[in-house]
Design brief:
The protein has six helices and 21 strands. With 386 residues, the protein is α+β, with helices and mostly antiparallel strands. The chain folds into two domains: 80 residues, Immunoglobulin-like (Sandwich), CATH 2.60.40.1080; 276 residues, no CATH class. It has a six-stranded mixed sheet with strand order 10-13-15-14-20-21. It has a four-stranded mixed sheet with strand order 2-9-8-5.
Amino acid sequence: MPRTFSLVVLAVAVAACSEPGVITIVLTPADVALTVGGTQQLTATLTDQNEKPVTGVTVTWASANAAVATVSSSGLVRGVGAGATAVSARAGGSSSSVPVSVTQSAFDIELRNLTSLTAAQHQAFDNARLRWRQLVVGDLPDALLTAAAGTCGSNSPAVNEVIDDLVIFVTVEEIDGVGGTLGSAGPCYVRNTGQLPILGRMRFDSDDLAQLQITSKLGEVILHEMGHVLGFGTLWTSFGHLKNPSLPSSPGADTHFDGPQAIASFDAVGGNTYSGGAKVPVENSQGDEGTRDAHWRESVMDEELMTGFIEAVGLNPLSRVSVASLWDMGYEVNLAASDPYQKVFAAPAAAPAASSREQIALGNDVYRGPLYVVAPSGEVTRIVWR
């Protein structure tokens, strides 16, 4: 008897799986504070309904008021005029926005080039000037200055004028070739009242700057050095904030900056877990006279811009700790305009190991010439030999 087989056919419908939609857009930073001409990069993080990252989706940026701030197709916000607005990001049917406030900085920095600069160098100096004006926003008293030629660098001209707020002489010249002396920067003349700079200098080796341009680190180095003219690391002793210095003969001492605003900002970025000594830790063992006692400690602060070493790869953020240290010296600052920077700090090793990352050692980059203290009459009342 023949066997009979029953064949059951199952029809299975397979629904095409679509890419998960964008449910959430998180913008970083959550708010933007700029001065006119300043910039801030926004980053959009996209996630789906399962809180998983979404990639490959176009983000469209828009400003609610382009007269106050504009935003590029990559999320770079630029302050245009004083006021408030919002910048939004839209992707996959979802959107998010952040508030943007733009102010006109009352702090002026005038750059006077004593030598010729390339277009790229000129732009780097101007970008640094604008960035510091974004961070330092308060006006300083106008200062009458009478300065003899050669007193702020050997090639500096005589000065007899009222200055608002800070003038910086810029010199780019051959010194000793690539890899030698990068240069130096710092104040030359300060106000008798308040001790803040009137006139400073920045001098660089032209060969080193050309190499920095190739490696895309020119802007960060110029920004760092301009901070020394403002007083970072160069006026700490004048304000009594440098404690337990490692120079001239105490390498490894617990050198630190004791300004209360800098300490509070250090704690805010993770320093409340730091157990390696007093706060804020200052370089005490790496580098020479121009590095020690004048920069944040590399073994602790790592990639922060104002250590004595620039990371050759990646960003070197100018953190609120550095900006707050200027607050401790009497500047009016905008902490919200500082770069994002957050770490988990721990006690550093007694002898920091050599970094496996490629770094640019800034070397003896602090100007150590005489510091002239100027009365409101414009005359020098005393000279501090450094």
